[in-house]
From TrEMBL:
This is Flavodoxin. It comes from the Bacteria. Residues 3-153 form the Flavodoxin-like domain. GO terms for molecular function: FMN binding; oxidoreductase activity, acting on NAD(P)H. It comes from Clostridium beijerinckii. The lineage of its organism: Bacteria, Bacillati, Bacillota, Clostridia, Eubacteriales.
Length: 155
């Protein structure tokens, strides 16, 4: 039986809710990426911080989430869409955890920007992994939408 891990970073709990739904429907384990330094609570301040980090390829130190994934076959990887890319804690995970030979399945939450470049950027970081088509959702996603996607990718 294949083992599934759902890894996510969430700023406002929307990505967390989607990660929990995916874990529930797949029977996967769940792991939150927690950066050492939290982002500013104020959206505008956080946006300035994040834009600079993304542009510079910054990998924040993580307090949790970088444990080995050796026993897992499928890694669902979730992030908010920040400036058309994934949140910097995702880059830390991708660069510090060995995903060679794993199947990586991206998902993101957004306020209208869709996937942006998230899937492309994850594929660039996961060249020794198989990357399946992802799922993007706003906060009003439904259990059925998640179920349909999981069936579409064959899990």
């Amino acid at each position: 039986m294949s083992k599934i891990l759902v890894v996510f970073y969430s700023f406002s709990n929307t990505t967390r809710m989607l990660a929990e739904e995916i874990a529930k429907q797949t029977g996967g384990d769940i792991r939150e990426l927690v950066p050492e330094k939290s982002y500013a609570f104020n959206y505008n301040t956080a946006a300035k911080e994040v834009r600079n980090e993304i542009e510079n390829g910054y990998c924040p130190k993580l307090l949790s989430g970088e444990e080995p994934v050796k026993s897992y076959d499928y890694i669902f990887l979730g992030t908010p869409n920040w400036f058309k890319s994934f949140a910097p804690p995702i880059l830390s995970f991708l660069r510090n955890v060995d995903l060679q030979g794993k199947t990586v399945i991206p998902f993101c939450t957004h306020g209208g920007g869709g996937f942006g470049q998230i899937q492309i950027n994850i594929a660039k970081e996961c060249q020794k992994s198989t990357v399946l088509p992802g799922f993007e959702a706003m906060s009003n996603f439904s259990e059925q939408q998640v179920k349909n996607w999981i069936e579409q990718i064959g899990l």
